[in-house]
Amino acid sequence: MAHPKYKVTGGDILFKGESVLEKTTDERARMGIFMSFQSPQEVPGITVEDFLRSAKAEHTGKNPSVLKFGKEVVKDLEDLEMDDDYASRYLNVGFSGGEKKKTEILQMKILNPEFVMLDETDSGLDVDAVRVVSREVNHFLEENKSCMIITHISSILKSLKPDFVHVMMDGQIVKEGGPDL
Known about the structure:
Elements: E1 14-15, E2 18-19, H1 25-31, E3 33-36, E4 43-47, H2 48-60, H3 66-79, E5 90-91, H4 97-111, E6 115-119, H5 127-141, E7 146-150, H6 155-160, E8 165-169, E9 172-177
Parallel strand pairs: 3-6, 6-7
Antiparallel strand pairs: 1-2, 4-5, 8-9
Helix pairs in contact: 2-4, 3-4, 4-5
């Protein structure tokens, strides 16, 4: 997503036939690319709902109706088996690891991108949270979306049923296959 720490040394990254190499993070997001993080950051001073409403406005170019948007957030929180009060809490502040990961999935649902990258979304999740996150990602993918999952634990793949699996070691693909891999 254009983090300055990483430099592309060869090749290109195409999304919908267009190179994204020279695009900024926000430009990539507006194109429909989303990334959830292994370790989501805490953001004191901004509530989950305000963050999501601002992100949605930036993504669509329109400010969503406060009332309608609030109802959408509450519905999505319920789907994620989270209490409504998370919407009014500061973003990820004091959240458990599972709550942070569910909040990332909430962001994915609200922003509705075409392509998502889930970076170790299952890391630190208990069995129930893996079930909820997997269910919501599967529902999201039913809408003809694409997803790349980065994981060190293959158990989430039993719930998500990937089309392709690539096993990497030291930055190189060492094995490829279908969901049975």
